[in-house]
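anyone seen this seq b4? input:
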Amino acid sequence: MSLHIESIGSGAPLVLLHGWGMHGGVWSDVAQKLATDFQVHSVDLPGYGFSGKGEGEGEREKGGEPVLPFPLPSSPFSLETVVDELSANFPEPIAICGWSLGGQVALHWAAREPEKVRRLILVSSTPCFAARDDWQHGMAREVLEKFANELELNHAATLRRFISLQLRGSENERELLALLREKLFSRGEPDMATLRAGLDILRDADQRGELPGIKQPTLVIAGERDKLTPPQASHYMAQAMPDARLAEVKGAAHAPFLSHPEQFVKVVTDFLKAKND
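predicted toks r here
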């Protein structure tokens, strides 16, 4: 098996990590725009898209040309194993942009390898996806359990429902829903074990304690109308990390890079080009 990474542009490296149920192709439009200033690496996380579909099926691309594939870990999908694989594929210091579940991967990577993660961008992310007694900015655990049960009955319908929740309330909601549904299975269906493990991460992971130790410059991007990871979670992260700033996108739900791409690209580019304070 191999990890599929599409690389375009030149300049400082920027790694894009997608959310649960999707693949790196979800970034395609903004990746093209960001590639004007950066070398952009869009990753299919293990078990998603073209990654982990069998020996030789995944590949790394640069300017449309395949590069030698990289082996995937045989252990289950977890924050630790995914960061192990990503770190092996990106040995040099980088900037990371993680969306939703990809944001939790990015948080763990930044906390574990501060010398490698130069800058951090968290998009519609949260340190703790599920609600707890001391954390009211998360999804009810019974809702997550319902998703897990429905996944076993009809995974395709469950993924489509999850997409609908991501975009609910967003400007251009109907157009975006059509776009995401088109992209959803464009690289095949994700691995079921990976989907289950991803829901386990969303249910169990609590990275609030790691936030004060993440000292890299961080940009937290929130959608004003996000129903999955409410803006309050982004405000919390921006306040808890020593060098973080918040950008809230008006009219956006859980996918501001899709609903407001120009604004997203500008705020990311300005942040990555800014000198350290």
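The beta strands are 5-8, 12-17, 38-43, 60-62, 65-67, 94-99, 117-123, 218-223, 244-249. Residues 12 and 88 are 18 Å apart (CA to CA). kinda curious what u guys think
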